[in-house]
Amino acid sequence: VQLVESGGGKVQAGDSLRLSCTASGLTFASYPIGWFRQPPGKEREYVGRISRTGATTDYADSVKGRFIISRDNFKNAVYLQMNSLNPEDTAVYYCAAERLPEKYDYWGQGTQVTVSS
């Protein structure tokens, strides 16, 4: 199983960025996918989650209304659209496949997002 994040980079406050997470080695449509992030010097935190079909999404309060998660099961991909970015969004962003409820067993390597003021 392999998950690969891409799309990170350096942006300025107020900008937008879209991260992608592509998967292989698993029946992608069978897994809810979560996004997490780890700010510098802090613990990893939950960003949001999308259900197997994409019909349901959930977001942390810190990103609600600014971030949107979507997926394309034909492409084995999940996306994290990040709008109105601010410096507090600076982190390494990870996607993970939820094999059991709230058990994320498969993780990507992460992609760095840096937001400058």
Would you mind describing this structure in some detail?
This protein has 117 residues and is mainly beta. 0% of the residues lie in helices and 56% in strands. The strands form two sheets. Strands 2, 4, 5, 6, 9, 10 and 11 form a seven-stranded mixed β-sheet that branches. A four-stranded antiparallel β-sheet has the order 1-3-8-7, with no helix packed on it. Strand 4 and strand 5 form a beta hairpin. The chain starts with a strand and ends with a strand.
Topology summary:
Elements: E1 2-6, E2 9-12, E3 17-24, E4 33-38, E5 45-50, E6 57-59, E7 67-72, E8 77-82, E9 91-100, E10 103-107, E11 111-116
Parallel strand pairs: 2-11
Antiparallel strand pairs: 1-3, 3-8, 4-5, 4-9, 5-6, 7-8, 9-10, 9-11
Using the CA coordinates, give the radius of gyration.
13 Å
Basic shape: globular
Low confidence ranges? none
Structural class: mainly beta
Please tell me the overall pLDDT: 97
> End-to-end distance, in Å?
37 Å
Question: How would a crystallographer describe the biggest sheet?
Answer: 7 strands, mixed
Helix share bin: under 10%
Q: Regarding quaternary structure, how should these chains be classified? A: single chain
H/I helix tally: 0
Sequence of secondary-structure elements: EEEEEEEEEEE
Strand runs, count? 11
Short description:
0% of the residues lie in helices and 56% in strands. With 117 residues, the chain is an all-beta fold. The strands form two sheets. Strands 2, 4, 5, 6, 9, 10 and 11 form a seven-stranded mixed sheet that branches.
